[in-house]
User: Which sequence fits this backbone?
């Protein structure tokens, strides 16, 4: 399955954006401000791994492979493939024996976070994770303000339900400030979401 | 990064094998005997999900994307990409709040299981998962006998260490019978590994 956004713009997963960004880095245009949420989270997860705090990985981008060439004496080349929609969230792993699962999204909006950043499969998945006792949340970034929030999946599900029942198609910034947890940007780690998890009584 | 096996054979991830197998199914050559370990585990995981027993997913095959075309009014097409080596294991998820992580491999050998089926990155990852209190194991299938075993990562690490120290490059079938847990093939689910996990006192 491959797909476009409703506006006809082709869907391009974050990994590709990441690779383009990495190229810019090599060209010397690297700057902290230009780092994507994904890069910040990858750095954060590396920090957690290095310090033996938690083991969290981003899942590979799902790709539907259509045609593969097998040249003699060299590696297989994928000649035709399409981006697929993910059936789960992008990040998962283990913290103190517990299962951790989250999705990360950013918006250019300044007053609300559009729910179209998530899709129904991911919402189902988050519900399932909660039902099985996992720790599940989303990390939301307002890029204009460089503000990052952790919002527990329980709350996201309520906002999603509101939309499904005909309500607004976004979460207002005020709602995120109320129900979510602000994560101040740091140097190491960049986005210290585990500190928030520690305050949320999962381990009491 | 793309790579060949030491024998010069190109590396082809299981997903591709899976797709080829699915094609055979469509041609009417489907048989239970012909099901790959991956297909059996996917069915098993679907069963667990449907029955609300556990949420376990296979990670997508990691692919290094080199060139993408963006045709007007249609989906992005990946025109050049390579298979990458995975940095973690293939399966993970949540069972009773706990983090579960495993790798599945099969061999045509009849007397031992070659350790070249795993790579150093995966061994590191398993070690890390154990250090963080996750449940980690491998599922090993002797395809000739249609016998499946669950071997806890703790034991795999000992056999790996033995190899690194100059010892044998495989685990003998006797060792797997002794240290591992035989999983009788079922109809639903096909490979009931959660039943073994239940006997291993992780939840006492």
Assistant:
């Amino acid at each position: 399955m491959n797909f476009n956004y409703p506006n006809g713009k082709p869907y391009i997963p974050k990994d590709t954006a990441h690779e383009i960004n990495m190229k810019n880095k090599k060209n010397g245009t690297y700057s902290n401000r230009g780092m994507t949420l994904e890069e910040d989270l990858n750095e954060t997860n590396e920090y957690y791994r290095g310090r033996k705090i938690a083991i969290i990985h981003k899942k590979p981008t799902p790709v539907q492979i259509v045609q593969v060439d097998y040249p003699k004496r060299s590696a297989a080349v994928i000649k035709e493939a399409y981006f697929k929609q993910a059936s789960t969230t992008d990040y998962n792993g283990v913290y103190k024996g517990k299962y951790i699962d989250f999705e990360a999204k950013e918006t250019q909006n300044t007053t609300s976070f559009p729910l179209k950043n998530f899709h129904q499969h991911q919402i189902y998945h988050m519900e399932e994770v909660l039902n099985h006792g996992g720790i599940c949340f989303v990390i939301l970034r307002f890029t204009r303000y460089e503000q990052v929030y952790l919002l527990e999946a329980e709350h996201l599900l309520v906002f999603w339900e509101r939309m499904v029942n005909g309500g607004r198609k976004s979460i207002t910034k005020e709602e995120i400030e109320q129900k979510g947890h602000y994560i101040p940007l740091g140097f190491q780690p960049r986005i210290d979401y585990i500190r928030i998890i520690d305050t949320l009584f999962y381990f009491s």
